[in-house]
Write a structure and sequence with these properties.
Number of strands of chain A: 12
Largest interface: A-B, 30 and 32 residues
Strand content of chain A: 15-25%
Strand content of chain B: 5-15%
Helix content of chain A: 25-40%
Structural class of chain B: alpha+beta
Strand order of the largest sheet of chain A: 2-1-3-4-5
Shape of chain A: globular
Distance between the termini of chain B: 66 Å
Number of helices of chain B: 8
Order of helices and strands of chain A: EHEHEHEHEHEEEEHEHHEE
Strand order of the largest sheet of chain B: 2-4-5-7-6
Oligomer: heterodimer
Helix content of chain B: 55-70%
Chain lengths: ~240, ~375
């Protein structure tokens, strides 16, 4: 976290949101965090700004007046796979979130949101855009008391070393790559089983239960491998804030 | 419009029924014609037209009257004075039968129209009173936090110079807390409305453990200091449910637990499978439900305890709506030794999918 504070404050954020009050709150809050802010109130204006300003991150409302905000994600992902996009939405509909995430959004924040949560998600998204890795010099990821050695395909948790099966390894690897970000069922199925099995979500769920039993102190109350019902999973490192 | 028909009977079956009644009357009349008087025989047909009027509606009753009079004259009136000779008595009998058919069906129409009107009015009154209780709950639960937010914000705007730092912080904290409360109330009202308008239940196979875990992780800080025990057998296979909806059930139950029990109170979540049903128990060691309220707990806007606890009284009503949508049952009771117990029975929802196909080895 400390290593990024020097680079983060200069990040330029493009906020695409039609509500003036929400824009004002975010302008004030994110400005106070030393982010440079650009604003747009529609999909058309937003896309224009994306090309003109080349921002470091987009904060995107899905309910925009001229078109669905998802259009922005489609348009941006055609030419830039790495520009982080964080979706803001009042919609409780998980289907819309999955569409946005599978179209290439990095994460979402539900409105109404607490600023702390938004800032944490922003930091994670920007960090990922800069492809910062979290493993230490020996290539070991640490989650609290848990050590994950991907090169040896094993975890050391609850004081003992456990081997990961091939699928568990692939799932954990994908979740670590997107640490602190939501990963949809479809994305994880694709990672672990390939593109032909993206409907078989129950397999994924069973493997996640197994993975929790190997990692979590109390698998029924997971600290790290969190479920986002109807959407997917999120590996919470506890270091995002 | 008012139906002239018996329940669900089509036109054809009405006429068919009506003819059948005439045939039946004729069989009876022919069997009795040597033993009773001709006027009594006519009564059999009158009875027939009554039955047709009540059961088959106006057109079929008229058909019954015409056929009835014709067969009556053909089979029951001695041959030498039938048809040609007795034109006038034929016409009188026919008019009487037709009158019976028309008067009875007319009266029935009016009665049915009236009962429809009464039912409509009852429905209107019921939905009116629902709207009223919704309105009063909504206006109270929305306006109270709004008042607090508005008051605090205007105070900060206008009294800024006279407030010290801790007073300002207090007001700002109040705004945040009340906004959160408002969000909960609005979310619950929207959720209940969505459920009542017939939300789509998207069932898939889920490990129950994962759904319970998702709900519990939302209360990480609220549950700290309260011992939580989850007993879901490891071999408990998958259940076919809508995970987003079922998680909401556990979120609402745990939310109640946090709201209505003292810090430090233990919570137990237990699940067992019996045949095709999964029984889940959510039990705490708090004070239990107010006595006598167990049945009403799941009603909308019912609040067991009003003093000091905030909420629209929708949490358990939402739970019931969700469990019902899964064809399950949910009940609440206070344990003899104290503590609230909510038990949920859910059908597993079919035979769980085979997990071997994509298992390790076959693709690895």
């Amino acid at each position: 976290m400390t290593t990024q504070t020097a680079t983060e404050p200069r990040a330029e954020i493009l906020l695409i949101e039609d509500d003036a009050e929400i824009r004002r709150v975010l302008r004030t809050t994110l400005g106070a965090e030393c982010y440079r802010m650009r604003e747009a109130a529609s999909v058309a204006e937003g896309l224009q700004q994306v090309h003109a300003r080349q921002p470091d991150l987009i904060v995107l409302d899905l309910g925009l007046p001229d078109a669905d905000g998802i259009e922005v994600i489609h348009a941006v992902r055609k030419w830039n796979r790495n520009l982080p996009i964080l979706v803001l939405s009042v919609r409780a509909n998980e289907g819309d979130k999955i569409l946005a995430l599978d179209a290439g959004a990095d994460d979402f924040v539900n409105k109404p949101f607490a600023v702390g949560e938004l800032l944490a998600r922003l930091r994670v998204a920007i960090r990922r855009g800069a492809s910062v890795h979290r493993e230490d010099a020996e290539g070991i990821f640490r989650l609290g008391d848990i050590a994950i050695d991907l090169s040896k395909r094993c975890v050391i948790a609850k004081g003992q070393e456990t081997h990961l099966t091939r699928i568990e390894y692939k799932l954990l690897q994908a979740l670590l790559r997107h640490a602190d970000q939501v990963v949809t069922h479809g994305q994880l199925l694709n990672e672990a089983w390939g593109p032909n099995h993206t409907e078989q979500t129950h397999y994924l769920r069973v493997y996640m239960v197994q993975l929790r039993r190997k990692l979590e102190a109390d698998p029924a109350r997971p600290r790290y491998l969190r479920t986002e019902p109807g959407i997917g999973y999120r590996l919470v490192t506890g270091q995002a804030d | 419009m008012v139906s002239l028909t018996g329940q669900g009977a089509g036109r054809f079956s009405q006429y068919f029924g009506s003819v059948a009644v005439v045939v039946l009357c004729t069989l009876v009349a022919v069997a009795l014609r040597s033993r009773i008087e001709i006027t009594s025989l006519a009564m059999i047909y009158i009875f027939g037209v009554l039955v047709a009027s009540v059961r088959y509606g106006r057109s079929a009753a008229v058909l019954n009257a015409v056929l009835g009079v014709t067969t009556f004259f053909y089979f029951c009136v001695p041959l030498h004075d039938s048809f040609v000779m007795e034109d006038s008595s034929y016409l009188i009998t026919l008019s009487a039968m037709l009158a019976v058919a028309l008067v009875i069906t007319g009266l029935l129409d009016r009665v049915r129209a009236q009962s429809d009107r009464v039912r409509d009015a009852e429905l209107r009154i019921r939905s009116e009173s629902m709207k009223n209780s919704l309105l009063s709950a909504v206006s109270h639960d929305i306006k109270t936090p709004l008042a607090a937010i508005y008051g605090a914000a205007t105070s900060l705007l206008e009294e800024e110079d006279r407030l010290d730092r801790s007073q300002s912080r207090g007001l700002i904290g109040g705004i945040a807390a009340e906004a959160e409360r408002l969000n909960r109330v609005v979310t619950n009202i929207l959720e209940m409305t969505r459920l009542e308008s017939g939300v789509e239940v998207r069932k898939e196979w889920h490990p129950l453990e994962e759904i319970v875990g998702a709900a519990l992780s939302r209360f990480e800080s609220a549950l700290s200091g309260r011992p939580v025990t989850v007993n879901i057998p490891r071999d408990l296979s998958l259940v076919c449910v809508d995970d987003v909806l079922l998680e909401q059930v556990f979120v609402n139950l745990v939310d109640n637990f946090v709201k209505y029990t003292e810090p430090g109170t233990p919570l137990l979540i237990d699940a067992v499978r019996t045949g095709e049903t999964i029984s889940i128990i959510v039990q705490d060691k708090g004070q239990g439900f107010p006595s006598g309220s167990e049945e009403r707990l799941f009603e909308k806007f019912f609040r067991g305890q009003t003093s000091g606890i905030r909420g629209a009284g929708l949490g358990l009503a939402i739970c019931r709506a969700i469990v019902n949508a899964h064809h399950g049952t949910i009940k609440a009771r206070t344990m003899p030794e104290g503590g609230a117990l909510v038990s949920i029975n859910l059908p597993i929802g079919g035979s769980p999918p085979d997990l071997t196909e994509l298992a390790e080895g076959s693709t690895a």
